[in-house]
Write a structure and sequence with these properties.
The chain is an alpha+beta fold. It has one domain: Beta-lactamase, CATH 3.40.710. The protein is 37% helix and 11% strand. The strands form three sheets. A five-stranded antiparallel beta sheet has the order 5-6-7-8-9, with helices on both faces. Strands 1-4 form a two-stranded antiparallel ribbon. A hairpin with a 4-residue loop joins strand 5 and strand 6. Helix 2 runs antiparallel to helix 3 and helix 8 packs across helix 9. The longest helix is centred in the N-terminal third of the chain and has 29 residues. This is LACTB protein.
C-alpha cells in the first residue's frame, strides 16, 4: 500500500479520524447522503411548483430559501451538541514529545479503504503529514512551523501549550448535558499539532490569507520596474492547492470539493439572472471549546485591464472568524460577509 503526501492533504489516505469503528463511519456518511438527497428533492419540487409564475421571482425565492435554509440548519443553535465531539480521542491529556511519538495512536490501525479510492476527513492524516515534514526538513515540526509563522509575520500564532504563559489566551466554552455554559475541559493537543494544535488571532489569519492570495495573483500582474515582490509561494503552487480533487467532499458547503488542505467552490452559473457561484477557498476549524473559519474570495481580475490598473495584489476579500465556543458553523456567515464587502467594493 502506498500513501502519498497528496493523498494525505486531500484526505484520501484511508487513515481513520477519531472514530475507530468503520461501520459507524459508514452509517454516518449514509445518513448525511440521505439528508442531502432529501434536501435536493425538496428544492427540485419547489422549483417545479413555481414554474410559470415568473422566472425572476422564482429564481430569487429559490436562491433566498436555499441560502436561508442552509444558514438555519447550520447556525440555528450555536454551540449545539455535536456527535463529532463525543469521540474520546478529542480529549487526550497525554503529552507527546514529538510528532513521531504521537503516531503510535493510530499507526497499527487498519486503513478504512484503499488509498485514493474514497474521501474521509482525517486529523491523523495531518499528524502523519507533520511527521513527513519533520523528517524531510531535519527539524522538529513545531520549530519548522514557528519559523514559517515568523516569515509570514504571524507573531501571535503559537503552540497551544497549556504550561506556557500566553498573553490574551481566551477561555473556551462548551454546553453541558443540561444546556448550560461551562468551561471547556483540559486537553493536550501535542498529538495533533498539524491538525488543530495552534493558537492564533484574526489578525494573523488575515495575514496568512493575504500571503496566499498575493501568491495566487502575483503572476497575473505586470511587474513594473521590478517593484512587485514574489509571493511566499509560487502562483502555480497556490492554484494547485485550490484545485478541486475528484472523489472528495466538503461538509460545510455542499457546492464545494476538497482540494489540498482547503475546501474550494468553483465559479459556476448555469442560467442568466440565476444562482451564481463565486470561486472561493475556505477552511473551518472545530476544537474543544472553539470554532473558526478562514475564507478567501479572490477578485475576478480582468486580464485586459491588469496592465493598466494602478493596483497590485492581493485583490479580493478575506474573512476570518474565531469564537471561543464549540460546534459553531461559521462558513456560511463568512461567505455572506465576503459577498457584502465584494458587492460594496464594485458599487463604488
Amino acid at each position: 500500500v502506498t500513501i502519498t503526501t497528496r493523498l494525505l492533504v486531500s484526505h484520501l489516505s484511508g487513515i481513520r479520524h477519531y472514530e475507530k469503528d468503520i461501520t459507524k463511519v459508514k452509517e454516518e456518511k449514509e445518513k448525511a447522503n440521505r439528508a442531502l438527497k432529501l434536501t435536493k428533492s425538496h428544492q427540485d419540487k419547489e422549483l417545479k411548483e413555481k414554474e410559470g409564475k415568473g422566472i425572476e421571482k422564482t429564481d430569487c425565492v429559490k436562491q433566498k430559501k436555499e441560502h436561508d435554509g442552509e444558514t438555519k440548519s447550520r447556525n440555528s443553535k450555536p454551540g449545539r451538541k455535536d456527535k463529532e465531539f463525543e469521540q474520546e480521542e478529542y480529549y487526550l491529556k497525554e503529552k507527546f514529545e514529538s510528532v513521531i511519538e504521537s503516531l503510535k495512536i493510530f499507526k497499527n490501525d487498519p486503513l478504512f479503504f484503499k488509498p485514493g479510492s474514497q474521501f474521509l476527513y482525517s486529523t491523523y492524516g495531518f499528524t502523519l503529514l507533520s511527521a513527513v515534514v519533520e523528517r524531510a526538513s531535519g527539524q522538529k515540526f513545531t520549530d519548522y512551523m514557528l519559523k514559517m509563522f515568523r516569515d509570514l509575520d504571524m507573531l501571535s500564532t503559537v503552540l497551544d501549550d497549556n504550561e506556557a504563559m500566553i498573553y490574551n489566551r481566551a477561555r473556551c466554552y462548551v454546553y453541558n448535558k443540561k444546556g448550560r455554559l461551562v468551561n471547556a475541559p483540559y486537553v493536550d493537543n501535542s498529538y495533533k499539532w498539524a491538525g488543530g494544535g495552534f493558537l492564533s488571532s484574526v489578525g494573523d489569519l488575515l495575514k496568512f490569507g493575504n500571503a496566499l492570495l498575493y501568491s495566487y495573483q502575483a503572476g497575473q500582474f505586470k511587474n513594473r520596474n521590478g517593484k512587485l515582490l514574489p509571493g511566499y509561494l509560487k502562483p502555480g503552487t497556490v492554484a494547485m492547492m485550490w484545485t478541486p480533487v475528484p472523489k472528495t467532499e466538503v461538509s460545510w458547503d455542499r457546492d464545494g470539493k476538497y482540494a489540498m488542505a482547503w475546501a474550494v467552490v468553483e465559479k459556476n452559473q448555469q442560467y442568466g439572472c440565476c444562482r451564481q457561484q463565486r470561486h472561493y477557498a475556505s477552511h473551518t476549524g472545530g476544537a474543544v471549546g472553539a470554532s473558526s473559519v478562514l475564507l478567501i474570495l479572490p477578485e475576478e481580475l480582468d486580464p485586459e485591464a491588469l496592465g493598466t490598473w494602478p493596483v497590485a495584489p492581493p485583490r479580493g476579500v478575506i474573512v476570518t472568524i474565531i469564537c471561543n465556543m464549540q460546534s459553531v458553523s461559521l462558513n456560511s456567515t463568512a461567505l455572506k460577509i465576503a459577498r457584502e464587502f465584494d458587492k460594496e467594493k464594485w458599487a463604488q
